[in-house]
Amino acid sequence: MMERIREGVNSIAVKIILGLIILSFVFAGVGSYIAGGIGNTAAKVGNVEIGRGEFEQAYQNERNRMQSQLGDYFSTLLGDPSYVASFRKSVLDRMINDVLLEQHAESLGLRISDAQIRQMILEMPQFQNDGKFDQDIYQATLRRAGFSADSFAEYLRRDLVRNQLLTALQGSEFTLPSEIELQSKLLTQTRDIKTLTLSLADFSKKAQITDEEIQKYYEENPGQFTRPEQVKVAYIELSAQALKDQVKVTDDEIQKYYDEHLDKYSTSEQREVSHILVQGDDEAKAQAILDELNAGADFATLAKEKSEDIGSSEEGGSLGWIERDVMDPAFEEAAFALKNVGDTTGLVKSDFGYHIIKLDAIKASESKPLAEVKDEIIAELKDQVAVDEFYNLQTTREGCFRYPDSLDDAAKAVNQKVVTTDFISQVDAPEI
Fold first, then answer.
1. What whole-number distance in Å separates Cα of residue 105 and Cα of residue 166?
2. Range with the lowest mean pLDDT among 115-119, 320-324, 351-355, 396-400?
3. Among 24, 89, 82, which Cα is nearest to 58's?
4. Which of 42, 59, 94, 243 could be joined to 386 by an S-S link, Cβ 3.0–4.6 Å?
5. Model confidence, pTM
6. Which sign does the torsion angle of CA 279, 284, 287, 289 carry?
7. What digits encode the pLDDT tens for the residues 65-109?
């Protein structure tokens, strides 16, 4: 049996068949490779190719945006294959239009400088905290959106170039001679009109009304001639503000409160620091900068040239004044461990990368003098006493309800007067 198989394999016919099979696999593989290469391009605009991966990412981003806006309704639309095909085509058309705009802008020599990109990022409200650029918010936002600092800057550059071209086109205008002529005719048109005025007062003087008509109108519109229910009210006003005005605070009480709450009137220690940031986990790059610094290079110059903190690099790395509990814990610990102005740290690892920190100045904790906060303390003590007295009087007042026909006992208990109104309705009742 094995002998026959070996003889069959060595025959010319079998070799020809095997050769054909091998060739078919070769050409099929090459064909699929070529087809796969073509399939990796979603569209070609001039010499620029829009990759399928880039298109799928743009499609997914647009799909997520529409999903967040339309919710379940959009999910229903995606169940229609024809809508999905149209939706995908609209995304691709927009990408093609963007490339065409970029190509035309390039042909016109339109450019956006690095300084413009940087200034735009610093002014974007999405990256600000209390009106100032915040590097932490900037980095976190980019990570959530799937951008690196370079890719986001390039994205902004392309968008600004396109908008530069569109704004120039949309801002241009011209007027046709026929439009000027039509506008001139409209402005110089005149009208001849006649008016007739009918005076209601003249008709009223001549009107004759019978007693029966007056009686009928009165009976059909009783709401117009009905006075609202009115009452007389006696009340006692118990006011915390009035009690506060009666409170007297002594100097001893003021001094005692100030001593017990001194931390409330003291500023925290502040430090002015600068830093050089290398984003990510590139420790070798950060170490190379530190080596330059240790070799005598100027800190501010290195920060301008090599720091990846877009918010502080142009300022020589300066972050201004900081307090505790506002920065990354590792950064803060290293910054407040520096002893003398001018000292620098080694490499400090945080969630944002590697920092080299320099201490520029120190403001020690300071307490405000008593004279400066005296009025604030008096107001605080009066509030406390008035509130306590207010609740005590409420408790006393509740015991006076045993005499429901008179407010005299309650008035005596809280040392207030009984106020009695004239007849009032809900419309004209006093605000209290």
1. 9
2. 396-400
3. 89
4. 243
5. 0.43
6. negative
7. 888 888 888 888 888 899 999 999 999 999 999 899 888 888 888
